[in-house]
Amino acid sequence: MAGYRYDYEVIAQWIEPGEKVLDLGCGDGSLLHHLMEVRQVQGYGVENDPDKILASVRNGVNVIQANMERGLTGLEDGFFDHVIMSLSLQAMHNTQGILAEMLRVAREAVVSFPNFGYWRHRQSILNGRMPVSESLPHQWFNTPNVRFFTIADFEALCEMNGIVIHERLAFDDGKLVLEEPNFLASVAVYRLGRSG
Amino acid sequence: MIQPQSVGVVTPQLARFTEPLRLRSGETLADYELIYETYGTLNAERSNAVLVCHALSGSHHVAGHYADDPRELGWWDNLVGPGKPLDTRKFFVIGVNNLGGCHGSSGPNRINPATGRLWGADFPFVTVEDWVDAQARLADRLGIERFAAVVGGSLGGMQALSWTLQYPERIANAAVIASAAKLSAQNIAFNEVARQAILSDPDFHGGHYYEHGVVPARGLKLARMVGHITYLSDDSMAAKFGRNLRHGKAVYSYDVEFEVESYLRYQGDKFAGHFDANTYLLTTKALDYFDPAFEHGGSLQAALARASANFLVISFSTDWRFAPERSHEIVYALLHNQRNVSYAEIDCPAGHDSFLLDEPRYHALLSAWFDRIEV
Question: Given an 8 Å threshold on Cβ–Cβ distance, is B342 in contact with A53?
Answer without folding.
Answer: yes
